[in-house]
């Protein structure tokens, strides 16, 4: 096997950092003190296009006595003044190794310490990050610069650093979103092209139905903010299913590939994505079938209630069959403007007003529910039963879904609604 070459423009060392690079049959490595550094790359898959769209560069270190050091341990062993040099050396190492694998159709995700991210713009012209890319012949649009969410600052220095990488043509990724005290203000501030969700979000979603229900809405908000979404740390098919079901764009984790000195091949990618999508389609069909079977009696009962009300029956009589169902909470009638007519009709298994703290919400006569999806959809699809996503009911203070249907009493349009309790 021929030894890899340093990238164009770097055929011979010309700076202190470049002097630390070493070429061998196994690739390009670097020396830093008593450590030998090498590059590993973990694939990042596009879930819809079913192939790697990028690789995250990860540093590997072995001391002279053969002891492996994690990046965290290596950086932690150094005084703060030495860490930027190690970070800059790792960037140079990763860029060379990535270029030598001649993959010009995927992104390289590059981590930066806050010190290097903020200080890059201040570097002399011949030592700047942009100059390095130019000398290497590395297209800036192929590089994704990762910024830790906790490093985001509200000052001109940080905004200047973000602007610098944008001007180069790089993409910006906000890393570890959802870890610690995350907030969307950081999304508005730096407008990243990619947001990397912290692994804890997917892990918690796998064990908490409430969090899993919220995840698609979080992803939708990030999409509307102009960001693509990447889920980190996917290790199981269940976690991959959650990511696909939430409309997440990209995924990374041991399920898709461990860090490796070489990039993932197309054949490996096809095998991985085939398994992931087959599992998703099977589980999605099963979930959908279970949901339809669960809702069927409630949809039938609310439809039957509309028929009885159209025929002039009383609301208690019309809604009786719905209220006898095991998860039924209450029924209520709306006029054509979404105004509630009369009280809620509660099932025998429900406890209206059980929480005295919510007593100001108890009387809903005359309430206007015209903004609610269950009213709007029922009006738009006359005579066809509708069902909402889970949401918090103001009347019961419980998580519920609402089934609804529009009908006529004489020449007036009405909507009958029924709330169904959801498990938390």
UniProtKB/TrEMBL annotation:
CDD domains: EAL (cd01948). Coiled coil: none annotated. It comes from Formivibrio citricus. This is EAL domain, c-di-GMP-specific phosphodiesterase class I (Or its enzymatically inactive variant). InterPro entries: Cyclic-di-GMP_PDE-like, EAL_dom, EAL_sf, Sensor-like_sf. One of its GO terms (molecular function) is cyclic-guanylate-specific phosphodiesterase activity. It holds the Pfam family EAL. Residues 21-273 form the EAL domain.
